[in-house]
Every structure is written in structure tokens, then in C-alpha cells.
């Protein structure tokens, strides 16, 4: 298990490239199961979650070649049974359900287990797939799915008590592309990653309208064909480094290339409100972020896209821990996603968490302590805190961060941070 030692206090400068989006890559890799023709996907980040997905595709019978960021998949002969040993490692494995059902009329996938960021039920995935003709039996921890009459389009409302579901929308969209007739997803997720998946499917010959809005319409087609596709930039990786710029860069700031300005709007707005400098180039593909002279605390409430992303909540907690004033962060999507706060308190942060809300009294310099990463974004928050802390912070269980940040230690080194990955 690797750990990261961050020697705090370096001033960040220079520039890096942002990687392709992990959360777009995962469903798009799964969607390659929808055709027996070759699929080429570019800018797939080299993170452990995409490696798990590739292992699942291989275990299902697909031939997969990966060379740097490009993945070539040939899913000529595939089976319907996703092995538990691989599925249990990553919740996003459940997005093979839709493609397997569409292509083979059956799928067996384990129920994902508990998750440290809160309850993550799959009732909306099941609701969507049942509505278009899937029979589902639960047995031995598996979801056994069959569509004996074939999948048949209908209208389904996928809203849940915490709003729309991203992977639930993806699953139904991937199942519906080969269904008979038209499927309408009401209360669909509108995240940029859902739009990227829709564009990938459209490139394969699917007929989809409305991706990026709350209503997606899918007209089923008989067959899909091969495609070449480039994954969109990772807005959460970009947002994380933008926060790093606001917290630890010199007056010149740091510059991030290969970003998408539109996808970063809620993060940009909050950094500007907190008094920092955020400047995009003319075509919105590079951004410079520098710390403001008089930063101040803010109130943030997470919401489905185009609202403030839950996946950036932990990183802003780090920013506000060192920002004078009182900030309040409420997570309406995952109200239990505050594991980072207890670890940050060990570094001297003043944070009170109650009922899905963190109240942060910021301004003091943090000090180094050995801390434990609990999930992907919580780990990112600890790295950010460590960059400005006094002393050397040891972040254990680095595998959490390796799930979703491509070569984070190398990128931090390129920006002038003093970090070391230590194998233990
Ligand atoms: N929900 C239900 N029932 C369902 C599915 C979801 O009640 O059947 C609830 C969830 O418990 C949550 C809300 O709906 O309260 C939204 O969950 P969603 O289904 O949208 O989450 P997801 O699709 O499983 C993706 C990202 C997460 C990100 C969320 C929200 C991927 C691989 N994962 O998860 O990313 O936090 O959307 O935007 O795309 C991360 O990258 O660190 C991460 C956790």
C-alpha cells in the first residue's frame, strides 16, 4: 500500500495537462460491449478504476488492448456473467448491466456493497431496467436479469430522493439504444459525463436526443457499429488542481491545459466568490488560477449538474479550512460524505459536521499529521490540506486517490510541490 508524503509550504507554479474524465471513461468502456465491431477510445486516464473496468470487459470475453491513453476493444463473443471478484472492487461495474442486457438479453452482476460516502442503493437502476422489460431476480448477492420478450421502450421517471442518478441514467440509456421503440428518461442526469456517453453511443449509430437536459429520448435501433471517440476532460481533476492553485500557488498562479470551461462553471463561480483569480483562455481550454489577496469564506450547497458537484465538496472544505471567516458546505447528494473532516481536524482544521452540513471556521495554518485517506475525493482534500500545512503530512491508503487521479504525484511535482510516493 503506497503512501504520499507531502512536505508542506512549497509555492506552486507552472502548468500541467488535465487527463480524460474517469467518470466518462467508465460507462463508455462498458458501452463498448454493445457492438461486435472494434471500438477505439482515446484519453482514457490511467487510473485503477479504468483498469478494473478493462479487467471486467476482458473477463466478459472482450479483447482489450491498452496503449498509453488509447484503449481498443473488440467485444465479438461475450458472456453475460460479470465476476463478483472484479465487480466488488468498484461500484461503477454496475454499468455493464445495460449493455449486456441490450446485446445478450441477459446479465448477471453482483449487487454493489456498502460505500464509505454513504448509502448508494441501486433501486433507480432496477426501476429503469424493469420498466423496459427486464425481469430481475436477486440470488446469492447477484442481480440475475433477463429480458425474455426483448427490451421495449417506454417512459420512465428516474428521480430519487437525492435527485437524478448519473449511472442509473447511463444504464438505462445503454439498454434502450437497442430496445424496440422509444424510451424517454424523465428526470435524467445532465452531467457532462452523461453527454459524453450519449455522444459515444450516437457515434455507434444510436438515436439519442436531449442528453444534457432532464429528458433524454432514445429511439431504439437494430444494431450498433464501431466508433472512435475521445473522452472529455476530467472536470473534477481540473477543479481539484484549481483549488490547489487558489491555496498554494504564487501570484502568477498555475495553469491547467485541456480543460472545458463550460463544465467548470460552478467551481469557477465559487473560487471567484471566495476572492481568487480564475482566467480562461479565449477558447476555454486552459485556465490560470491564482490565490486572491483577500480570500473569504462562502456557502456551498451541492446539487446535480449544473449545480455545484458533490465530487468537489471535500476539496473546497480544504480551501475553506485555511480561508478566514466562516464557510458552510452542505452535501444534498451524499449527506454522509464528510469523512475527510475528521482527518483534517487532526491537522488543526476547525470543522463541525452535522446532518449533511460542515461548518468551517477557517484561517489558521494547518499542521502536518499522519492521516488516512477514506475515499477518492476525501484523499484529494487531504493532499490539498497538506500542501499548505506546516511540516510533512503522511497520507496513508493512497490507493483511494489512485482510483481516480492520473499520476497525481507526478503532476504535483511538475507544479513545484514537494511530494514523495513511498511504497510500504
Ligand atoms: N441513488 C438512489 N438510487 C439509485 C441510484 C442512486 O437513491 O438507484 C442516489 C444516491 O444514493 C445519491 C444520488 O442518488 O444520493 C446520486 O447518485 P448517483 O446515482 O448519481 O451516483 P453514481 O451514478 O453512482 C456518479 C459518480 C460519482 C458522483 C455521483 C454524483 C461515476 C462512476 N460516479 O455516481 O463519482 O459522486 O455520480 O455526481 O460516475 C467520484 O468520482 O468520486 C464519485 C463518487
UniProtKB/TrEMBL annotation:
Which domain of life does this protein belong to? Bacteria
Q: What UniProt keywords apply to this chain's record, in alphabetical order?
A: Cell cycle, Cell division, Cell shape, Cell wall biogenesis/degradation, Cytoplasm, Peptidoglycan synthesis, Pyruvate, Transferase
| Chain residues that bind phosphoenolpyruvate | 22-23
> EC class of this enzyme?
transferase
Q: What is its EC number?
A: 2.5.1.7
Instruction: List the catalytic residues.
Output: 115 (proton donor)
Give TM segment ranges: none
Q: Sorted alphabetically, which Pfam families does this protein's record hold?
A: EPSP_synthase
Subcellular location, in the record's words? Cytoplasm
Q: What is the catalytic activity of this protein? A: phosphoenolpyruvate + UDP-N-acetyl-alpha-D-glucosamine = UDP-N-acetyl-3-O-(1-carboxyvinyl)-alpha-D-glucosamine + phosphate
Q: Give the pathway.
A: Cell wall biogenesis; peptidoglycan biosynthesis
Q: Which residues form the Enolpyruvate transferase domain?
A: 7-412
Q: Report residues binding UDP-N-acetyl-alpha-D-glucosamine.
A: 91, 120-124, 311, 333
Q: Which InterPro entries match?
A: Enolpyruvate_Tfrase_dom, Enolpyruvate_Tfrase_sf, MurA_subfamily, RNA3'P_cycl/enolpyr_Trfase_a/b, UDP_GlcNAc_COvinyl_MurA
Mark the residues carrying the PTM 2-(S-cysteinyl)pyruvic acid O-phosphothioketal: 115
The cross-references to NCBIfam families, in alphabetical order and at most eight, read:
murA (TIGR01072), PRK09369.1 (NF006873)
Family label: Belongs to the EPSP synthase family. MurA subfamily.
Q: What does this protein do?
A: Cell wall formation. Adds enolpyruvyl to UDP-N-acetylglucosamine.
Q: Which HAMAP family match?
A: MurA
What name goes with this protein? Answer: UDP-N-acetylglucosamine 1-carboxyvinyltransferase
- What's the source species for this entry? Rubritalea halochordaticola
